[in-house]
Amino acid sequence: MEKILSIIIPSYNSKPFLAKCLDSLLCECTDRLDIIVVNDGSTDGCEQIAEEYIAKYPASISLINKVNGGHGSGINVGSEKAVGKYLKVLDADDWFLTENIPEFIKALENTDADVVLTPHHTINISNGEVKSWRCFPPQFGRIYTMDEVMSQWKNFDRSLTFHGITYRTDFYKNEGIKLSEKVFYEDHEYATFPCSKAKSILPLDLFIYEYRIGDVTQSVSAANQLKRIGHTETVLKRMTAEGKSFTGAAALYCAKKTHLLLLSFLVTSLLCDKNRKAGRQRADEMMSFMDKEYHEVYEMSKKHCKILKTLNRLHIGLTGYNRILNSKLYNKVRHNKSFD
């Protein structure tokens, strides 16, 4: 039976989570799925869990064992093997909403869009908070061009993410993108380089991805983002180098995505580093680089940087900053959509 969706699961020491991840993909249309677990040199035996599922579903689940090369290398290897009409990446500690997969498969069968967007939830395991990250197009289920998307950025941006994007497989492969390896945060490349070239984008009002957050061991925790700030810098510089070669709507999309990652870099440097002077110096160096190498992104970001440096000097940290971002007044002034 034709495979409609390839699901690439990069897996590194994910033994506590992988069974839940794979269970979430078992539904009435599992035979339409091409599930690829990429074992990235794990030492906890998580590949044995994958093998147990392969024994039960050999036509739908496969395993690739490889030496450790990082999250991006897992996606690179998995995408080469993907045979589904579309492909989507699912991290091994996350899961899909099982009950929505059949409708998702039907939608993918009936479109040839380069990119399909779906909303997702974040589930904070430390406090139980669930947030809905959705887009707000004028109409779901119709095709938009990148020009249309960029002219309505705030209606689309929350789904133009690693968790919200599904690529048509031949479109992704034809772009020839190889994600950075042996670094964290290359998921920003995944959501930027191929998507910027999309000619057709289809938003669906259908939650698929459930994103687990709130674990201090995750790469997205504040402590780890500071520890790996050099990784963010590496990805930012690659996005800068690539983005400057784009034109039109693709160039604006890449600039917007680079701007968002730059803001993350600035927040980490200015609000998470206890050595506030060192944080300011790191932020100044990056902004100087952007002013010289990617001036459009510098212009987008300089006002935000000024505000963050003020918070830095007032000794307002990440908790206080997030309280501001989540306030109703801030979101009303910014005309941001609700997360409800």
Can you walk through the features of this model?
By secondary structure, the protein is α/β, with parallel strands linked by helices. It folds into 2 domains: 5-213, Spore Coat Polysaccharide Biosynthesis Protein SpsA, Chain A; 222-333, no CATH class. 47% of the residues lie in helices and 15% in strands. The protein contains 16 helices and 11 strands. It has helices at 18-23, 46-56, 71-81, 101-109, 146-151, 153-156, 169-175, 187-190, 193-196, 222-227, 229-243, 248-272, 276-293, 295-313, 318-325, 328-333; strands at residues 5-11, 33-40, 61-66, 86-89, 95-96, 115-117, 120-124, 130-133, 165-168, 201-203, 209-213. The protein has a 7-stranded mixed β-sheet, with helices on both faces. It has a 4-stranded mixed β-sheet with strand order 5-11-7-8. Helix 1 links the parallel strand 1 and strand 2 (33-40). Helix 12 packs antiparallel against helix 13 and helix 12 packs parallel to helix 14. The two termini are 39 Å apart. The model has no long low-confidence stretch (mean pLDDT 93).
